[in-house]
Amino acid sequence: MRYRGWMRATVVVVVAMLVLAGCSKPTQQSSGGQGASSEAQPVTVRMVYWPGPESDAMQKVIDAYNNGPGKTDGVKVEMVLFSREGFWEKQESILSAKSPEVDLIFTASYVVGRHAPNLDPLTTVVGDQLGTFIKSSVDSLAVDGKAYGVPLDVSNHFLYYRKDLVDKLLADSNWQATYKLLAKQYLGKEVAPKPVDQWTWDDFLATSLFFTKKYNPGSATQYGTAMQMKNLIYNVMIWDDVLWSFGGHWLKEDGSPDMDNAATRQALKVYADTTRLGVTPPGSSSYEYGEANEAFKTGKAALILQWSAAYHELTDPQKSTVSDKVGIAPIPGERHATHVHALGVGLNAYSKNKEAAAKWLKYLATNQAMQAYAEAGAIPPVTSVLNGLSNIRPEFSAIAEHVDKYGFVESTSPNVQPMLEIMAKRFSAVWAGQGSADDAAKQVQAELTDVLKK
Amino acid sequence: MAWLERKMPWLLVLPLVVAVLALLGFPSIYAYWASLHRVVLGRVHDAVWVGLFNYAIVLTDSDFWRSLEFSAIFAVLVTTLEVAAGLALALLFHRSFRYKGAAISALLVPMMVSPALLTIMFRLMLNEFIGVVPYYLSRLGLQVDPLSPRYVIPTLMLVDIFQWVPFAFVILYAGLQALPDEPFEAALVDGASRWQLFRYVTLPMLTPVLALTLFLRGVDAFKVFDSVYVLTNGGPGTMTTTASLYVYKLGFVTGNLGQAMAAAVILLLVLSLPLGVAVRYVLRQEGTA
Question: Does B236 sit behind a cis peptide bond, omega within 30 degrees of 0 on the bond before it?
Fold first, then answer.
């Protein structure tokens, strides 16, 4: 019967532990309380962040703050990293549960509309200091005229090209003759080589043909380009540049969808042509950011449409075989256009440390913090910071210029993600040569109408 | 104290019952409830009663039926191949040879890796520019891109087979080890050939284990998510969208949690059919044992 004694003791211990656990206070939230003096225990502000180069850079800003102004403010900032797989879903679960577990949440132009009901507007929190940032980036985190995020990283697209090869094409008459011949034969058009910043999509396709071994056995690269065609919302963002360059956009002025038109079909045709002609690898239908970079870095592709963040990697001699041959230019088209989105942080409406979080946000919205962030590898949308660092980060001045001159923000409504998902689903089939542009345009128009009705 | 002693067994299982109810019971009830409401991600507290509307939307969505069809075909093909390969390996290992333990350990490695991680490794190995597979294929004169639309479905199947053949092998090998020796000895005395031994002795006695393996792998293959999510995200278009991926995208990408729950409930009903057959079969086997 001795075991009964043990069982009784076990039950008593378990019950006691459960009772104690239930009675104990959470450790994170109110150590020090709101408005604690600098001598008291600092208030811990927990900020969700996106893991990768951005979080590495942000850690340096946090360290500087915690060891400097944070001491005076009585605030200590902690970064909470979720893995990128399912990042938004995890964060949205926290917001849906109205949890005060984190004080600042990570947001982006394409999800801010969905986050907004659970965020506090920043106009009163940060005030005029949002003027530190490029206006379009602040707008890209605003919903119904209210700013919900401090924009910390700006993303746009470039046409990356092999400078050595394109320069030779512009100088070599034999290459030019072959180029014209291929364009005539496979595109049915008279196209002559011209400077990259003047390219239309015909120039892009003709150059892709010329640098594909299948058409030009003397080509230094196996493929002209490496398109990102995986069924992925981020790939639709790149394709959106093509749509805008043809004068298209998702919505009419009255807010109804505007996809069943010539611009959509033309933009789809550009992508589908790269597959049909075989100027992009056959596996492009599963390509995203990493694969396109690999194609370029290994010297297998001469042109890629890619995010501005890739410049650092493509020009890194440790990672790229063509690091000293990388050129950047505006996205081709009669009208150059680049999708712009910002990544930033917003204030959780259910936070219990709003006052402390506001102090940290105000610090983030300073030139000093953004300078440190940029020096650590990030791309803050602050013109003076970007231009000031162009000697060590040559792409920064191009980012500032392109975002300003060619940048567009489609929408920040809560429906952005569903809309992108519909386009990714329907258009990725057309890109890969598995469906017709006409059917896809009609289908997307119908499905977007349905989504917006809801 | 007599009361405490009487209730002791119940008290001891109570934490487990509470955990099961919290982790399985609540989500299940919530799923049924949400399937009858308009629930949007980010505003789950503003649910609106819509009756069977979500079910109607899902059942009239051609993408849902396409995903169901793809999952079913995928499950049937990979399960058949995995169980066949697992059985062949189990028969091969059902004898003594040197380094057998080490060989079995090596064989089980793919099963130990998380499916998402294994698929990321495949994504690198299959990459046309840096991957070892296209490299060796090209050395053999084969210009095949395993991730092109033409080959992407067989590639997804091969990834699943590579990971889960060890699972079929382990169960079937354990089943073989547990078979009694007498029927084999009697058959050998009667002059049975190796094929006859397999066909008329091994296979009938192994049938319950085979059925269990087919069932477990079938259900798991039907629910495949990780590898498709990492490798194709359901594309190009909806070519490789599985039922699980359909539900995930509906709930977490487009934010229609109510519709996603309705789709999940429908999937549960679809899967309950083979589940019922399998349970009946197992119970019958137990009854005749």
Answer: yes
